[in-house]
Design goal:
The chain is mainly α. It contains 5 helices and no strands.
């Protein structure tokens, strides 16, 4: 994987983490301590999900076509584990559902904000690299 893609993945990871902190505080402000815990759990799950996505993206871009099938199975397992964890967090543990949703939305916020915080030269080289290959 190219250095610019690694930098982009790292920048998105940082944006997910910062968004998670901000959104956790928002959930706490809206719903109190129970909301703070739900938001924190959602944000932590968002960051863990991003870490898994980034790990899989690195492997997919560096693997031969034959071994990509195993990575597809891992992606399916990751998604299944994510859904099961959300279900357990909301139904068994009883986290505040709205606060959990606010926290887990850190993944979307980070993916949208991360690339915008890249220096212009790095962002342009990433886009050029993707269009060439």
């Amino acid at each position: 994987m190219s250095a610019s893609r690694n930098a982009l993945l790292a920048r998105i990871g940082k944006a997910v983490a910062v968004s998670g902190i901000v959104l956790t505080l928002l959930a706490g402000a809206l719903y109190g301590l129970h909301g703070l815990l739900g938001g924190a759990a959602g944000a932590a799950l968002a960051y863990a999900n991003w870490s898994a996505i980034a790990w899989l993206a690195e492997r997919v871009s560096s693997q031969a076509v034959r071994s990509r099938g195993r990575l597809a199975i891992l992606a399916t397992l990751k998604t299944s584990l994510l859904m099961a964890t959300c279900w357990i967090a909301l139904t068994v543990v009883g986290l505040h559902s709205r606060a959990f949703i606010i926290g887990i939305s850190a993944l979307v916020a980070g993916i949208l904000i991360g690339p915008l915080t890249m220096p212009e030269g790095e962002s342009a080289s990433t886009e050029a690299g993707e269009s060439n290959g």
